[in-house]
Design brief:
The chain is mainly α. Helices cover 60% and strands 0% of the residues.
């Protein structure tokens, strides 16, 4: 059986993203890449689909201006979450949170991340830069606050 002819042009190489330069910016890029899917999912809940990636990008651009300060905190992940949350909330406006306005901001986040995006308590803790036990407390508080229906009680 004859060997098929080889193509005249070599296949094009797979495009590669340049690695971040060593230093503090590498940590910011790593945190961004680690949680990007969840940041985008959160933003997409509250913003038009085209605005979600822009909001996340803008939040990280803002954060990059004071990333060294964030690194000096106990949780750079919490700083990143706050930047994303601030940007999304500013674009979404207060009406987006009317149904959960009676909850604290942290409870609103936990509610959306757990019940709507189906993240585990451990994933939420890593994303928002909190202790897993604190997220469990918030989930229990939300469960206790949930209206009971169909129980036959007045």
């Amino acid at each position: 059986m004859p060997t098929p002819p080889m193509p005249s042009t070599p296949p094009s190489p797979i495009p590669r993203r340049e690695p971040a330069a060593p230093g503090p910016a590498l940590g910011l890029r790593a945190l961004h890449d680690l949680h990007l899917r969840h940041y985008l999912d959160y933003a997409a809940l509250l913003l038009p689909p085209a605005d979600a990636p822009l909001a996340v990008r803008d939040a990280f651009e803002d954060l990059s201006g004071h990333w060294l300060d964030a690194l000096a905190t106990t949780s750079p992940a919490a700083c990143a979450w706050q930047a994303v949350r601030r940007r999304v909330r500013a674009l979404a406006g207060p009406r987006a949170f009317d149904p959960v306005a009676h909850l604290t901001a942290t409870q609103q986040d936990v509610l959306l991340l757990h019940l709507v995006l189906d993240l585990s308590a451990a994933d939420i803790a890593a994303l928002i830069g909190a202790e897993p036990a604190a997220v469990h407390v918030q989930l229990r508080a939300l469960a206790a606050d949930r209206p009971r229906t169909g129980t036959g009680e007045p």
